[in-house]
C-alpha cells in the first residue's frame, strides 16, 4: 500500500505510464478478489466498504427491477436501512438467530426485487443457510436478486463456496486484516443493478469515481492472506474463543451464551450477564484495556437494545446485559488470559455497586 500512497500515484483511468501501472495494480487486485470470491474478475466492483456494497445491491436491484426489498430481521443496518427506506420488509428469525425459511417463503412473490440474508451475523456470529435461502427465492421469486452480506464471514468461511448461489456478495477490508474504507461487491454476470452514483465509466459503469489504488491493493493482499491462512486461523481462534467463552461462563454466575456455538463463526463470543447493564460493564472493561462492545459497534452509545437480540426473542432487559467479545486473526492466548482475569472481576464489582 505504501508504494501507492507515496511515489507511485497514477490514476488507473488515465493513459500515461504511471496511470497504466496503477491500472495494472488494480487489475491484479481484482483477480485476487475474484479468486477469493469464486467469481470472474469482471464481476468484482470495488467500493468504499461494506455499507456501500450493501446499498449498491439493495437500492441497485430495486431501481433496476422495480418491486420490493426483503431481508432478514437480523441484518446489519447497511442492509436493513436501505431495505426499509425503499419500502421493503423483514423476515423473522428463530430463537437460534437463523432465518425462518417458511416465513421467508410466504414473504416472497413476483413483486420482490431483492432478498438479502447475511452469511454471518456481526453481533452473534450465527451463520445463515444461504443455499437453502437461495433455493426458496429461486422457486418463489425467480426475478429477485439474492444478496448476501459476507462482511463478517470472509475471515472465517469459504465465501466462494457458501455464497455460490448468491447474485451479489458484499465484503469489507477491515474485517479481515485489510485497510478501512475499502470493500467490494461481487455482481454476478447478468445481474442488473442501477448504480448509486453517476459519474465516469469506472468499474464498468457500476461505480464511478477515481479508484482508491492503495486501499484496493491492501484489500487484495489481506484477502489473499485470509484465504491462505483461513483453515489454521479458524482452528486456532475457535480454540481461543472456546477457552474465553467457557472460562467466563464458569466464572460469572448466571452468564448465558447467545446462540449455539456450533452455528457461529470462530471469532464470535457473545454472552449475556443477567442484571448487568452492558454500557456500565464496557466502561469498566475499557479502563482495563479490554475492548468489547454491546450491540453492533456502529450502534454503540445508543441506548436501544440490539435489534438482532430482540429479533431472536430476547426481552429488552436480557438484551441490555449482552456483551460481544470479538476475536480476530490477531487474537492471542494472552488476550484471552487478560479477559478472563478482568471480566469476572468487573461484573462482580458492578454487582457490589448495585447492592
Ligand atoms: N455488514 C456487516 C455485517 C458489518 O459488520 C459491517 C460493519 O461492521 C458492515 C456491513 C459495514 O461495513 P463497512 O464498515 O465497511 O461500511
3D architecture notes:
This protein is an alpha/beta fold. The chain is built from 13 helices and ten strands. The strands form two sheets. It has a seven-stranded mixed sheet, sandwiched between helices. It has a three-stranded antiparallel sheet with strand order 8-9-10. Strand 4, helix 6 and strand 5 form a beta-alpha-beta unit. It is globular and about 65 Å long. The termini are far apart. The structure holds pyridoxal-5'-phosphate. Pyridoxal-5'-phosphate (PLP) binds next to helix 3.
Summarize, please.
By secondary structure, the protein is α/β, with parallel strands linked by helices. It has helices at 2-5, 17-37, 50-65, 77-85, 101-107, 130-140, 159-162, 202-205, 213-251, 278-287, 307-311, 316-320, 333-354; strands at 44-47, 68-72, 89-91, 112-116, 145-149, 168-172, 183-187, 256-257, 268-272, 322-326.
